[in-house]
Specification:
365 residues; 23% helix; 21 strands; 2 domains; 8-stranded mixed beta sheet; Aminopeptidase
């Protein structure tokens, strides 16, 4: 078996080994450490990375990794599972989305890879800030070791579990077939996981939001390693049924990769919609003016064009317009706004609507 050494953790065939990797020095002494778990089988096979908690208040992935990456797994698998249960330990300790030492979204700070404009004059790029330094070290692990990857997240308080199919980018016409193959492989792993899947935002918005610099987006689009993000419902709290079902989904992905024997496990602990056609994410509907919203639909609910999504009033309870914010699309409610106040153009929900956008796109020049 191929030996892996990450930080102070060195793989051992047939065993689960755990420890830490050092990332950046901290001003008060010592270093920011990331926890590392390596479960290695006694037979050759792929190296599958599992990561979680890049946003410190998204907890489910920590528990899923603890329940998947066990001594029993090491005794059963072919190949190696490398897990980092928290990519943001300071955020986990404080219950905050971002780390204490960098106030930017940590999941937009992974290397630009093939998207980097080599001609651009960017002095800041010469001096990466703290979490960019952490992200670069994590990214290098994938470059050296990974064959597959799942990054585990939570969306928001009122949301459903779902997996994300990325837009895959290519350079020049000669890269198109490779991008299609990579996209097809990603879709296969997502399907194997066993919950609702939605394509991400269209290509231009995907890049505008810097999703190519999310961890799974960078691994997929720059390193060309099959990877995806799974969003497991509400943040800030653990729900045992979501954890249990997601443990099954993660094992299903390992089975797809040929690392575990047995039939796929059906996820019965929670339900998600099963759209007949591919859907994509959209931030919709939006408020046309400021006011108070009271959501009238449930996460996962199917809605049709014209259906009310929220009651809409002023602070005195007087209806604004006809008293409702309505959808302009047929689709599924993925996530619902938890704050009842809105300003003009604020989104009230995130939906999944039929996707007619290509899953592969050329990198803009």
């Amino acid at each position: 078996m191929k030996k892996l050494k990450i930080g102070d953790v060195e793989s051992k065939p047939g065993e689960l080994v755990c420890g830490y990797m050092e990332t950046i020095s901290i001003p008060t002494g010592g270093a920011e450490m990331l926890p590392v778990m390596i479960a290695q089988g006694e037979e050759e096979g792929p190296t599958f990375f599992l990561t979680a908690n890049v946003h410190g208040n998204e907890l489910t992935g920590v528990a899923v990794i603890h329940d998947v990456v066990t001594q029993e797994l090491a005794e059963r698998i072919k190949g190696t599972v490398v897990a980092i249960p928290s990519l943001n330990p300071t955020g986990l300790r404080l219950g905050t989305r971002n780390p204490t030492f960098d106030d930017r979204d940590p999941n937009r700070l992974f290397p630009e890879g093939r998207f980097k404009d080599e001609d651009a004059e960017d002095e800041d790029a010469q001096y990466p800030k703290p979490y960019e330094q952490v992200a670069s070290k994590v990214y290098s692990l994938f470059d050296e070791h990974a064959d597959y990857h799942i990054d585990i997240h939570n969306h928001s308080i009122r949301s459903i579990p779902y997996a994300i199919i990325d837009r895959v980018f290519y350079e020049g016409e000669e890269g198109k077939d490779e991008a299609k193959k990579l996209s097809d492989t990603q879709q296969e792993i997502v399907a194997a996981f066993g919950i609702m899947a939605t394509a991400d935002f269209p290509a231009k918005k995907y890049l505008k939001l810097k999703y190519h610099r999310s961890l799974s987006g960078a691994v997929l689009n720059s390193l060309r390693i099959p990877a995806f993000t799974v969003e497991l419902g509400a943040n800030t709290a653990l729900f045992p049924e979501i954890v249990a079902g997601s443990v099954k989904g993660t094992r299903n992905a390992l089975r797809w990769a040929g690392m575990l024997d047995g039939s796929p496990e059906r996820i019965t602990e929670f339900d998600t919609p099963r759209p007949k056609k591919r859907i994509r994410r959209i931030e919709h509907p939006r408020a046309e003016t400021a006011g108070i919203v009271k959501i009238v639909v449930d996460p996962g609910q199917h809605v049709e064009e014209g259906d009310p999504i929220a009651r809409f009033t002023d602070i005195l309870g007087k209806p604004i317009g006809d008293g409702y914010i309505r959808t302009e699309h047929d689709g599924y409610m993925i996530a619902l706004r938890s704050n009842m106040t809105v300003y003009t153009n604020d989104q009230v929900a995130e939906m999944g609507i039929e996707d007619d956008e290509p899953l592969i796109a050329e990198i803009p020049k």
